[in-house]
Specification:
homotetramer, 334 residues, 4-stranded parallel β-sheet, 8 strands
Chain lengths: 334, 334, 334, 334
């Protein structure tokens, strides 16, 4: 018999699988079909437990803003999901450590859409927790467009009705939303970083991600904007991939105008999550970590190991972008 | 803390979820990345346990033909999946009754793709267990095309490499494969139905599904072909939806040429599964079931409650169509 | 100099090209941008001058129904357009013979869209002059979908705003419009054909096109419907490609019920145009033309060499389908 | 009669239209179907006659590189095409002035594809004459993707077989071709600009286009690269739209390091064409033209009114990119 293909272990496993579905079914009954909207919070992901908190903070803000609307996390990085998959072997340990189940068992984008379809959500808002529209957002949008493209003979069997796609924190390409305005709004939320640097009489150095195959001046423009908005402190942006790297940051520190001359640096990731890049590239023990590079140049470095996600005002940006995307797509939100 | 949102029950549930993933990971290691191919057997689905066996028979044939290639069932009907979802509340009962776990917990197409992505399958062959290219195949193809459409900036992050889509049992629209030839090959597999009717000196009446919004002569052509291939027996096709219905079948029986005149009918579903339509529309207690309609007209009816899926030669057609689709898509199979 | 690549002949040719553009520009000024709607009447095409009149009759009906909206003909057949291209060498002869310039210089679908874009038409209604949704409509829809898919960064540079696609005369696949209803409405328009056959005490035999790779029962259903609607006459449909062919028509004539027994046949194309198929396959001199086949079987044949396009009531169907498609796409029409 | 709708003027016009078609048909006969490849050179366009020469120079290079392959110009700007359309009223004047007919009668992208389809070209290489992948290339790619998306039931009726899309001069987004490498190769071609500035003991200021809704550091990177490649001269890039504008260029000139201090500027468009932007924004009489802005700041300006298209080595880049795109798409070229 075919069922013999399945080892006994499946029996207990599968019994377990029932409950969430039942719970969800119950939840679903309370709302009318036309109301069934869900939000997918799509992050690149992180394996660093403290970094998870940066993402959870955004999730909490979004949940608070849209009561009754489920907010699902998805991690787009295959590698990061595979790390969590291995950790599932010691699930209790991770759950006890405060990792929510939906992070420990985090799913890919396709499966997350599949789950929501199964639970009867027809309107989906996908909100990337990305800094700007670059590779990650481009690729994610491809998944969103794929889901949008499914057209059935009978309209009622279409898996989804409306799918909205929110723009990243600093905005996106195109004329619909002025990214210069988004950028300014976002930079208003980092005033406390500037204040810290000012108190320390330090320069503020942000480590952004960057890339090598998509030229984007967003961090150059951010740096210029920071100087206008916060003229009291010299803010510099460097990137892990592409240019300007830490060497150029060091060079710029050296060439600072007299009023900005300082031997002190507040060093902070300009990333949603203080994760692998923050703990390794930024403050790791390697000689060429940013901290060690700066220290070798006689700078006194104050690292801040917090992602932008844990900045409440910054996290709130995603609430705004969800609201905009939903409105543009004709999805009603509370 | 955010984790408090999750009730304690999740803990045990989620521990259970680990094991399949671990098993799958182990399975995956044995094969090189370029070999990772999986087959999705996409059925409309059935809630009738004996009907499930029709689908499992196809699955077994496919698994036997392609050793080492996982074959996943998906049911495309939302309604049918929701019935199974309710049954999950009494999972052990269903498992004990021989329902495999992957039917009891059957997933939608999107989630099935999501699972395979997660397990690292880059080449996917979707084989519908459909009779002919009609609404079901059209809609399924939309999902397949959506998955194909996802293009990432870096090729290596594309979720899937090659996705093949097999044609239904009686073939498909278009010149790539001659459906007349597919039809003939398929009808060769039902010789035993004819033989049964011949022995019984009965007419052979097939109940097909049909539809009301996509004119297709496939069953009219099948009927004509049956008469050529099996001239000893009068074969008639009727459809549940659209035309010709049972009334026209009755009329045709009445107008049979002298050599075919008979008061006996072998009545069988021309569907993959002997499911709801077979048990209700065909032989149900309602006055207007096909059996009762024929009986009322003084025909002696021998119903056969077996789907085409349980006909081994018919099931084998899908193996052939998988092989063709894989070859056309450049996917190597064992 | 590069301009020397162009022979002198170009100079006079190109001067000629100015005028239509100027005329169109003048025409365009009178209407506001949001009003600029054009209709493309897409036919397979014909090389037979009298057949052209079948298409022109439809065009006249559409132009009369939507005053002020330009109606452009396009022929989708590469072969037919290439015949007209050769005839352009004797343009005056053809123009004198009453062939309109936009037929003699008929363009493909892509160029027709290109022209309309150039003239500032942002809303386009494509109306196929097809009998039913089969290969021709499928392929045409691909072009329409391609034009619809073009999305520019700035909305204002999108080449087209709304593109509607009308359904063929006998309807289309899917639930939006019930094809059984469309079929009935269409068959109401051929009452005069039936009347002719009735007066002649003849059977009415329609030659439809058909195909060999897309099973469709539309003509089988049409035949059945004709018998219901016009019980006084035996109507038979045969097809040039696929089944039932003329042999089956002959067989059916032979097996006619007593009240329909006749040696007379009214033979007419069930095609938009009485073109190549009508003049060759239907009434050509070849032994196996339908007329000769019937004559050889001792039937007295009255051929009618008129396409459905020249039937005013039938032509009017396309006006209705344009109106439906425009409404569904949100395009206002007069 | 319908033909009466057409004024007499059409008769002579249309006779003219024959000849190109006849010529093209003749040309087509010499090559086998599988060889029929054409190149579309897609430019934003220009209305400035001397600017046309910049485009023609690229066309000549491409024609010389691929003998026997037709190279068609298309202008993507609706506004620019509409200017040429008005000029067609004085066609002879423009033709006498050396404007080639295919510029005077320049078509949009869709019509250009339509023409090539009509003439039997199945393989099309679209090469934008763009500087970098920004709005123009994005939008153009949408048209290309639309043409690629057309799939007919029978493969042989697909309008096009292979469609390649070449990357802009300085490269494109994504990992297929390293834009840093493309950038370097492109900047090697402007050595003579640097040499001119060096001889004049001037700074070299390039006016690029830029934009306000797609942050791109390509010109910032270009400026940095120029300083590495040509350390003897200070090269600055400013943009017409977005940032850095002329004010920032002036500021940078003022802050030049001692060895670069100069009151002289060589001012040149970093655009394919020295067109409207060059003649107005760069050297126009308005007080805020770049030249006047610099002059007001006491700089001595030497403007160079040549587009990059007229730089033979730069024009040759497009030959290379056509070759790469064709190879990637599997199109053979001479």
């Amino acid at each position: 018999m075919h069922r013999n293909h399945y080892p006994k272990i499946w029996l207990s496993i599968l019994v377990c699988l029932i409950l969430p579905a039942v719970a969800l079914a119950a939840q679903a009954e309370g709302s009318k079909k036309e109301d069934k909207t869900a939000i997918i919070l799509a992050s690149f992901g992180t394996t660093v437990p403290s970094g998870v908190e940066d993402i959870l903070n955004i999730q909490r803000k979004v949940e608070a803003a849209f009561p009754g609307i489920p907010v699902r996390n998805t991690f787009t990085s295959n590698i990061i999901r595979s790390v969590w998959k291995k950790r599932q072997a010691e699930a209790q340990k991770w759950l006890d450590a405060g990792i929510p189940a939906d992070i420990l068992y985090v799913k890919n984008v396709i499966s997350t859409f599949g789950d929501l379809l199964e639970e009867g959500y027809r309107n989906i808002i996908v909100q990337p927790t990305h800094i700007f529209f670059m590779e990650q957002s481009h690729d994610l949008m491809q998944y969103v467009d794929a889901m949008r493209s499914i057209r059935t003979i009978k309209e009622k069997w279409r898996p989804f009705d409306k799918i909205a796609f929110g723009r990243p924190a600093l905005g996106t390409i195109g004329p619909r939303y002025d990214y210069a305005n988004d950028l300014e709004k976002a930079l208003e939320t980092v005033a406390s970083d500037v204040e810290l640097a000012r108190r320390e009489k330090a320069a503020l150095v942000y480590m952004a991600h960057g890339n090598e195959f998509w030229p984007s001046s967003i961090f150059i423009e951010a740096q210029k904007k920071m100087r206008e908005m916060y003229p009291q402190v010299m803010t510099l942006f460097g990137v892990v991939e592409g240019s300007p790297g830490i060497d150029e940051v060091v060079e710029a520190l050296g060439e600072a105008k007299p009023k900005f001359k300082t031997r002190k640096v507040v060093l902070k990731p300009f990333m949603i999550v203080a994760g692998d890049h923050a703990f390794n590239d930024m403050v790791g023990d390697d000689e060429d970590s940013w901290k060690n590079t700066l220290t070798a140049k006689k700078y006194q470095v104050t690292p801040v190991l917090k992602g932008l996600g844990s900045n409440d005002a910054f996290a709130q940006i995603f609430v705004k972008h969800i609201r905009d995307a939903a409105r543009d797509a004709g999805i009603a939100l509370p």
